[in-house]
Amino acid sequence: MPTRSAEHSAGSAPAAADPRAASPWLGRLLIALGLAYLGVVLLLPLLAIFSEALSKGWLAYLTAIGDREARVAISLTLLSAAIAVPANLVFGVMAAWAITKFEFRGKSLLLTLIDLPFSVSPVIGGLVFVLLYGARGWLGPWLEAHDIQIVFAKPGIVLATIFVTLPFVVRELVPLMQAQTAADEEAAFSLGATGWQIFRHVTLPNVKWALLYGVILCNARAMGEFGAASVVSGYIRGSTVTLPLHIEIVFNDYNAAGAFACATLLTLTALATLVLKTWVEARGRGARRAALAVGALPVQAAPRPARSGA
Amino acid sequence: MTRPLKARVLPGFGLTIGCTLFYLSFIVLIPFAGLFLKGVAIGPTEFWQAISGTRAVASYRITLGSAFAAATLNAFAGLLIAWILVRYRFPGRRLVDALVDLPFALPAAVGGIALTAVFGPRGWVGRIAYPLGIQTAYSRIGLLLAVTFVGLPYVVRSVQPVLEDLPPEIEEAAHTLGATRWQTFAHAILPVLTPAILSGFALALARGIGEYGAVIFISGNIPLQTEVTSLVIAIKLDQYDYAGAAAVALVMLAAAFVLLLAINVLQAWSRAYQVR
Amino acid sequence: MSIDVRRLSKHFGTFAALDAIDLQVASGELVALLGPSGSGKTTLLRILAGLEFPDDDGGRVLFDSVDVTVATPAERRIGLVFQHYALFNHLTVAGNVAFGLRMRRGKDRVAKHVIDERAQQLIDLVQLSGLEQRYPAQLSGGQRQRVGLARALAIEPRVLLLDEPFGALDAQVRRDLRKWLKELHAKIQVTSVFVTHDQEEALELANRVVVMHAGRVQQIGTPDEVYEQPANAFVYQFLGSSNVLRARADGRQVEIDGARYPLEGAAASGEVRTYVRPHDLEIVAAANGGATFAVTVREVQVIGPTVRVVLQRDNGGDLVEAQLTRGQLAALGLEAGRRVFARPRHLKAFAPGASS
Question: In terms of CB atoms within 10 Å, which end of chain A has fewer, N or C?
């Protein structure tokens, strides 16, 4: 990306040799303003998490993240992510293949449905499962008769997590695969490759960075899910409490330091996500920009990054 | 020239579309169908009662109002941040660029309690604000802060690529035609950015309307003042008022739908401006 | 408005984009800056425009004897036309053309009806009448460039600068616009400088051509002068296809395989490289004593209206290309392997040290 600063900040005159170089004060002011805003809104909260977590000392910190309930919450969070991410990965690949390699009616509707989890409040995401599988829901009686518990049990958490993270992989793949014409795949097909072979040897190498990017975002969101989980959870300690929910419980129990201690785990994951994201973005940028420059239509709205949390 | 219909040349259509539809039905279609059915099942009068309750109606106003205010704030801030990230070089720029996505990566609940820590009465900012009479937490301001926090990246990420791709010749042309720096910005650059800004605004708005986790910690959740619609739904569910919850949820869904349409229109408009 | 460039240099770091350029453009002239990529022509144009500034070592730019070296583009009253048009996509054609006038403030402010009138005049001048309300996205490349031109002219510039104005257009459109620009310039007589790497364009359009290479001016002259009397081998080779024939010279004559020819350009002695244009290389069937030398036909290529024949000199094996008409080809009945004789005209040599 070219350096633009000296040359033409909104028409300011250029280089050092020029006796009429415009004042750099405007630039400095803007940067100061922008950084100040980000500092207050982003940086302070970030720092506060760690500051509060350690406010009662290292021992309290380690106790908070090591106690039994925290550990159970962590394992539930990891479990839901471990199920949701691969499931949505496979779904994402299949949906992207169907959408970008074929023409069929209702494609627009399909894309809207896929985008639905993005467009609704996570609470609604949990609500629909309660309405369907809850004791008073449509399938409630049937489930009870068969002694299957979905809402207020682990399956509910997993379903809610799958719901909110559903679009991530698809959204990353579709624009890219749309911009990359099917020519390569058709060539492989004409040479006798099976569908799976085409995918594995032709498509996959082209989209691997977008795929990885989608997985990273999907995982971040899965681990941080709060709103939908909160509704379907029932807050049964030791059973249906994910890490974000555990943080809520601990926080509301006036144990701020403990809550922040657990929060640091998720924060570190978030920071790792950012690092990975940046790295993958840089690697995949060339292919992506080239493809998008051709004028591909992104899957409904929304910029690349994830929508994590509640 | 339109691409000819790919007459199912490549293999795998049946399998992929089948699996996709099945999965989608299981996770999205059927659950939402259940929601709609519930809405229908409770009948018009009860439906109306549920969505027009005082708390519910207040929550619409609060949710929409705070989301709108936050999105507006983020529009200006987002433009500024995108501007300094693209047009200037300063130490730590790459770090700042990555950090802009923090609200995306950070769980909302963590964001919520973090904001409370900073803006609460004993927080770093609260300590200064409260004595001045400004209640930065458990108040409308707290609500605004939370919604602003989660919506921060949208305008930035929407504007950045457009700004990056803005050809320097456009500014040079304006410059040679006699435009001052401000005129160049206002007449040659801003109009190009406007669709992206509005697009980001709409996305931030959509996100702000649905936000739950970040809000419930710092807004105080005061009914009729800072109680948002998603919380109203959650409370109804807690009280086993499934009907009421479903009804209000359908109202939210309708709003989300309208917003989604607007976003698509804006994005189409944004693309139409890009002459190749 | 005359332009006077004195000892202008421009370095980017250690790289010398321009090296002590001296140039004068008379009022109303249409001058071409011609050269390959990296020759410095665009840099020079941008310095004339005020978008870049020369090294602070005494180099000067004067418009009508007024030093504008550090003046802004607006202060210089220049109009700039860009290779990729740089139109404001969110404005209509009329909006684009009126832009410069609309930006005027204070005492320079122009009344709206005057702006609209002037914009319309210019739109008519560039023959885009009827398209005032169209947006750039709805125009062809040639139309867009005409908008760019109208927009630059709207502010009544004293100097018009064009940066490879037709570079982004198809060949046919390029040719049409070239003709059209020449007519336009004859009508409006604004001092104009345009940059191009296309020698055909420069020769066709310009009153004078400035041939540039590696940051230096190689030659300044009318199209005829630079073509017929090139100052060095670089100018010769850049302005048209050329062949190199090794010869032995003494004074004003050279000898090639027994044939003797007058030498144009610099006098020389000993082994020299001589240059001849493909269309100046005549092919004859029979030898003619001291006037022809032997060659063998290697390849015959018919390309549209002309014929290109690759010949190999019997003595030494140098390859040269001759350009014939179809008629000449038919008369000679040439084919690969045939042994014929060449008679070059206008052989040129250049002083050693000329860049090539």
Answer: N
Shortest CA gap B184–chain C (Å): 9
* Integer Cα distance of B125 and B218 in angstroms: 14
Distance from CA of A3 to the nearest CA of C (A): 15
DSSP conformation letters of C85-153: ----TTS-HHHHHHHHHHT--GGG---HHHHHHHHHHHHHHTT-TT-TT--GGGS-HHHHHHHHHHHHH
- How much is the average pLDDT of B246-269? 87
Residue B150 lies in a domain: yes
Q: Are A91 and A173 in contact (CB under 8 A)?
A: no
Residues of A in contact with B163 (CB under 8 A): none
Domain with CATH 2.40.50.100 in chain C: 241-349
Q: What is the ipTM of this complex?
A: 0.88
Instruction: With beta carbons under 8 A apart, name residues in chain B contacting A161.
Output: none
Count up the domains in chain B and report the number. 1
Local confidence band at A22 (pLDDT 50, 70, 90 cut-offs): low
**Strand, coil or helix: what is C286?**
coil
Chain B contact set for A182 (CB, 8 A): 6, 9-10
Q: Report yes or no: B265 at the A interface, CB cutoff 8 Å.
A: no
**Contact: B178, C151; criterion CB under 8 Å:** no
Angle B153-B156-B159 from CA coordinates, rounded to 5°? 145
CB contact under 8 A, A267 and B101: no
Residue B98 pLDDT more than 60? yes
Asked if the structure places residue B164 within a domain, the reply is yes
Backbone angles phi and psi of A277, in degrees to 5 = -55, -50
> Cα(A155)–Cα(A87) distance, rounded to whole angstroms?
14
- A161 with A78: CB under 8 angstroms? no
The SS3 assignment for C3 reads strand
C297-326 pLDDT, tens digit each: 999 999 988 999 999 988 888 899 999 999
Contact B230 A227 (CB under 8 A): yes
The 10s digit of each residue's pLDDT in A137-189 is: 888 888 888 888 888 989 999 999 999 999 999 988 988 888 777 777 788 88
Helix (H) or strand (E) holding C320: strand C319-325
Look-up of token digits 């990420």: B157
The average pLDDT across C102-129 equals 90
What class does CATH assign to C3-234?
alpha beta
Beta carbons of B273 and C90 less than 8 Å apart: yes
Of A30, A45, A95, the CB nearest to B20: A95
Chain B residues within 8 A of A224 when measuring between CB atoms: 105-110
Query: For residues C100 and B38, what is the distance between their CA atoms, to the nearest angstrom?
Result: 62
Identify whether B11 is part of a domain: no
Q: What are phi and psi of A106, to 5 degrees?
A: 85, 10
Closest CA to C265 of C247, C251, C280, C248: C251
Closest CA of chain C from B273, distance in Å: 7
Q: Rounded to whole angstroms, how far apart are CA atoms B100 and A299?
A: 22
Burial of A131-149, coded b for 16+ CB within 10 Å and e otherwise, reads bbbbeebbbbeebeeeeee
**CATH superfamily name and code, A57-293:** MetI-like (1.10.3720.10)
pLDDT tens per residue across span B129-143:
999 989 999 999 999
Residue of B nearest to C155 (CA): B177
List residues of chain C with CB under 8 Å from any CB of chain B: 49-51, 72-74, 78-80, 82, 84, 86-91, 99-100, 102-105, 136-137, 151-152, 155
Instruction: Give me the total of CB pairs closer than 8 Å, taking one residue from chain A and one from chain C.
Output: 17
Would you state the CATH architecture of domain C241-349? Beta Barrel (2.40)
Q: Taking the mean position of all CA atoms in its chain, how far away is CA B81?
A: 17
